[in-house]
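note to self: dont lose this again. the chain is below, predicted strucutre after it. 188 aa total, dont forget to put it in the shared folder this time
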Amino acid sequence: MILVKYNLKLYQLIFTIVCLLLTNMALAGPNGILIIDLDRAYNSSKFGQWIRKDFQLKNESFSRENSTILESLKEEEIKLTKDRETLSPEDFAKAALAFDTRAVAIRAVRLEKIRVVDERFQELKPLFFDKIKPIIVKIMSEYDASVILEKNSVVWSLASIDITSVIVERVDKAFMKTSGAQKPELED
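---
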């Protein structure tokens, strides 16, 4: 009799747990959660690589310009050092002050340009994600997902909900369709 009561209570407990789980699943509706490694998608996709390479090519002239200016300033400083032997102390002080003033002004302009270039570089990743948003939305729909979480903010997850590779594959496929264009636009 005790065994029957025990088994009955165990079955009731199991039945209650199953009912609770099924009720929660039914009430939740589409609650798929997906994970994406944003850095990996940006760094490994051909489109992300193209964006960075295009940025680098557009800024090569800036780098060359910096090198030319730096070399010019070094040559001028060397010349000024040599001229010190032939100039009076007052003339050398004036020339040194003029050089220093010009070098400080050039440095301020270059630092501002570097800040602008860095700011543009920082905008590349958000631009990338803005461009691939339609692909991500389509994948969310296919997986019946309501949320995508950044992989770095998740403590544990199943590998099956990580869609980074799927996104990279689709972005690459869309990029390859348009990569012959001067400025590729993704197709989903």
